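Sharing a chain and its predicted structure for anyone who wants a worked example. Both blocks are below, sequence first, tokens second.
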Amino acid sequence: MAVDSIPALDLIFGRRSIRVYRPGAVDDATVKRLLQAAMAAPSAAAKYPWHFVVVREQPTLARLAEALPNGSMLATATLGIAVCGDLELAHDRQLSYLLQDCSAAIENLLLAAHALGLGACWLGVHPREERVRRLTAILALPRGVIPVAMIALGWPGETKAPHQTYLPERVHSERW
């Protein structure tokens, strides 16, 4: 089998940020599958500090779109998923571990969305204080829960070619 035809790698290379969505509901079973994939991510010391807020209501999605620069696609997305971390649950209560754990969950969620035929776009929230403050208010997050990212999801209304960025100058062997 040629390296270029490995299905798992095709999934990785084919995943792109989709910002245009066509109408169509995403059923509860599909959302659950996305969240199962997200929660299958590795976590420092198996602490699993993540929480997910699933947003389907268009008025809330529109508010989130206004709150996030470059987040306009949320207004037309079928749903959004806020990926948040609970600092009390993070390994050694360290923000760095919380961010790593949530980022791994986000990547799993994005790959699962692509595998299921959905389009998705990762919108960074943390460490921008204004974005964190706005999402915390809109989503009524409890104290100590930090919104790390917002994921816009829906049925793709655009197609993008697979993407590969291999930068050999960024690869070091044995030492820098």
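Comments welcome. The mean pLDDT is 96.
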